[in-house]
Amino acid sequence: MADGSDSLKSVEDLIEERKEEYLETLYSFLRIESVSAENRGIDEACSMLKELMESIGIETEILPSAGNPFVYGEIIRDQSAFTLLIYGHYDVQPADPVEEWLSPPFEPTVRDGKIYCRGVGDNKGQLMAQLLAIKSYQDAIGELPINIKFLFEGEEEVSSPNLSAFVAENKELLTADLVYTSDGPKHDSGAPLVLLGVRGITYIEMTAKGADWDNHSGNKGNIVPNPAWNIIDLLNTMRDSEGRILIDGFYDNIRPITEKEEALIRSLPFDRENIGEQVGYADFNMEKEEYYRKLTLEPTFNIAGFTSGYGGEGSKTIIPSTAVLKMDIRLVVDQDPDDIFRKIEAHVKKHAPDIELKNLGGMKPSRTSADLEIVDIVKTAVRAAFRQEPVMQPSMGGSLPDYVWTDVLKTPSVIVPYANFDEANHSPNEKMGIADFTDGIKCTCHVIDAIGKMPF
Amino acid sequence: MADGSDSLKSVEDLIEERKEEYLETLYSFLRIESVSAENRGIDEACSMLKELMESIGIETEILPSAGNPFVYGEIIRDQSAFTLLIYGHYDVQPADPVEEWLSPPFEPTVRDGKIYCRGVGDNKGQLMAQLLAIKSYQDAIGELPINIKFLFEGEEEVSSPNLSAFVAENKELLTADLVYTSDGPKHDSGAPLVLLGVRGITYIEMTAKGADWDNHSGNKGNIVPNPAWNIIDLLNTMRDSEGRILIDGFYDNIRPITEKEEALIRSLPFDRENIGEQVGYADFNMEKEEYYRKLTLEPTFNIAGFTSGYGGEGSKTIIPSTAVLKMDIRLVVDQDPDDIFRKIEAHVKKHAPDIELKNLGGMKPSRTSADLEIVDIVKTAVRAAFRQEPVMQPSMGGSLPDYVWTDVLKTPSVIVPYANFDEANHSPNEKMGIADFTDGIKCTCHVIDAIGKMPF
Fold first, then answer.
1. Which of A158, A317, A424 sits opposite B328 (nearest CB)?
2. Which of A173, A368, B83, B436 gets the most CB atoms within 10 Å of its CB?
3. A5-38 tens-digit pLDDT
């Protein structure tokens, strides 16, 4: 066998040769509208994955759950070898607002070297890069040097309600030495990113009801309660005008930021203007440390939706009968989503007992130690694949069910995103660069190769 | 000529005989979807009105305006006779939420003696009753004893932006001794109502913008502003938790409630349970005087719509790029809608200058003195028509452009609603009783007859 760098050169060449073929495979996957929030396209996505994985030589099963099925696959070279468990998700966000898409949301369309499609970055392009890496490695070099397991779920976009139980019930099947996830975007500087944790989330919905129907705001004005005001009055008891959360115990379990984490943050690159452009906010004016602290190490209290009364053109003079508020609250270690929900529940019961509160799902935050040797090996492989120094963050801003590895499976976990920072996941015109996709395939090959060379 | 009561008996008999024919005429009018907020059905409604009015012998013109046209008609018996100006509107509210209608919103459907259709109570059934009264009076008795003028507008449901200017420019055409309006519902006790004024309104829309697009609430959480929170933070500077408005000068011009008005309110009927049922709010628990004061003599600060982010099923994890708030603020004499808008504008400029504020229309409040002889004559005629003691209120809860008569035309104005209290105007399943419609036709005949007998 040739030495590492030579053999990886041959894999990289093969990937470039097969680019069009690999893109077509991705496009077929993207056209499946597997929107978990809308309960569609799920079975189709599973079937396609199974067929593809088996064609690559991955032994694959579609495993049912209380929700959408899991797709599990493995290539076991040697029971005693290092086992890498790769996690991803085949479900995507809803496409709305559909009218803001420049091309149909479920028809992959290339403009300026980027593929525009719902789910291309989050997470189908990244998931597909992992699978095509196995195919490329095997075709260019031969047998994998390590064991590989895959677990793809179909409910990540609705907060992975069944992943934790599935992992808890299948610990033996999933036993691994490292969990490897490619999801989310690279660093906004364009540098590759190695993430050692995620923020958690509690997603709530509050419904206030006034009268049984919308009433005329003149003939009934002042005499029936307005549910939009009721929600707003409740929100005022939950958060002050500085944005500080007033719910009892909300901040109780937050792990203090360590010196090492602060040092990591100080070492990160920062380009204010670039960030402003990438989030579409020209007035962005944070300082570097505030930015990283708020984005990765502090919780949020975000209104994701507020809907009450008339939202069309012009005026309609009504007292709405209902107001619905959707909030996603990002959590940091060691806040627990169930505990936070119970605290919110107690608060609502005290201040506005008539408002109905629903838990739409939660996810724990996670963090893996930066001191592990395997973390260094991955970082080195990522550097080699992208020919650029990776940025290493103690946490990402978003949420992934990373705690199921660190807390349930008790296995270290690293996240190496393959999507461009401006992927616009969850937004109209989501996109992934073609080069980000092929670089992702190469990166997985590098990681497998580097781990294969570890003394074990 | 027979004496008053005999001749009115013959008109009443004629109205009952012709009931089916009159209902068909109303149904044709109702099927025209003249929704001013959606700019449709306007010309069709004007044409139908003109044709009908001319068939009754009313000289009619469609008069253009900067917005929707006015339909003006007159029967001038004698330049020196008393002139009654009847006002109404041919436009209706939008039908949404359409899914809550039990029958198609623009197809009149009779259930339990009531006509269900958008606009049947507000205002087409009441407008049609006025016209059919003229037809009935002429056919049963002969020439009208007074002069009659009609003015029907097509923008009442969008706050009558052109009525005031039209009246100001056509004072001679519209010269009258009394303005008579049938709009809104009867008293909730079922008794006929004589109203001597209305609340005014300022309708505003506020738009807050965050980033240029919706951002992922995880990957961007805490680093782009949330426009829903921006609106809520602004609202908190505008109103305290007791509902008191904190906008500088908001209460400045409110005319103190007089002893006479308080006495009027004390004399009004009150049935708490019935009110609760009619507004669809089982927990309604106000006392009588609080109820009437809040409903007729105090301003409101109502949220008619709040729309931001995701409003569909399940969860979507975004920071919305936009939040839109619609508010209708009811005013009482002598609050002025332009003055109130300027005060709100100054407040927004001070507390949240980035939030865009739009004036979607305003209307002044009005009040006519209860001491006028003509008010007594109308009250007596209404009592005779409905065979029930009318309730007389200093103001109604809703808004009509009544100030154009009291302030612009300088003419006293009375409002005598013909629709049932539970007409559900502005709501799904709007309805008007068939008997309320025919009683309305009879009432206009009584009023014309009673005024014709006045010494003048």
1. A317
2. B436
3. 567 999 999 999 999 999 999 999 999 999 999 9
Tens of pLDDT, residues B260-316: 788 888 988 999 998 999 899 999 999 999 999 999 999 999 999 999 999 999 999
Per-residue burial over B284-303, b = 16 or more CB atoms within 10 Å of its CB, e = otherwise = bebeeeebbbbbbbbbbbbb
Q: Which residues neighbour A202 within 8 Å (Cβ) at sequence distance 6 or greater?
A: A328, A329, A331, A337, A340, A341, A344, A359, A362
Enter the DSSP assignment of A99: G
Taking an 8 Å cut-off on Cβ atoms, the answer to whether B216 and A360 are in contact is no
> For residue range B11-47, what is the model confidence (pLDDT) as tens digits?
999 999 999 999 999 999 999 999 999 999 999 999 9
CB contact under 8 A, A310 and B312: no
> Would strands A178-181 and A413-415 be described as parallel, antiparallel, or unpaired?
parallel
Query: Alpha-carbon distance B90 to B68, whole Å?
Result: 10
Mean pLDDT for B408-414 is 96
A2 confidence band (pLDDT: 50, 70, 90): very low
Percent of chain B with pLDDT over 70: 98
Of A211, A224, A311, the CB nearest to B307: A311
**Domains of chain B: which residue ranges?**
4-199+366-452, 200-254+299-363
Whether residue B274 is preceded by a cis peptide bond, meaning omega within 30 degrees of 0, is no
The answer, yes or no, to whether residue B446 has pLDDT greater than 90, is yes
Tens digit of each residue's pLDDT (9 = 90 or more) over A159-171: 888 999 999 999 9
A4-198+366-452 with A200-254+299-363: one CATH topology? no
Dihedral angle of Cα A383, A388, A390, A391, to the nearest 10 degrees: 170
- Cα B149 to Cα A154, B15, B440: the distances in Å are 69, 22, 18
- Would you say A186 and A192 are in contact if contact means Cβ atoms under 8 Å apart? yes
pLDDT at A319 over 80: yes
3-state secondary structure of B274: helix
Tell me: pLDDT of B1 over 80: no
Nearest chain A residue to B157 by CA distance is A316
- Chain A environment of B313 (Cβ under 8 Å): 37-38
Residue B155 to residue B69: CA distance in whole angstroms: 9
CATH superfamily of A4-198+366-452: Zn peptidases (3.40.630.10)
Residue A161 Cα to chain centre, angstroms: 14
Rounded distance between C-alpha atoms, residue B143 and residue B75, angstroms: 10
Architecture of domain B4-199+366-452 in this structure: 3-Layer(aba) Sandwich (3.40)
Residue B171 has a CB neighbour count (10 Å cut-off) of: 12
> Does the ipTM exceed 0.90?
no
- Mutation for A interface: B92, B206, B219, most A CBs within 10 A: B219
- Integer distance in angstroms from the first to the last C-alpha of chain B? 20
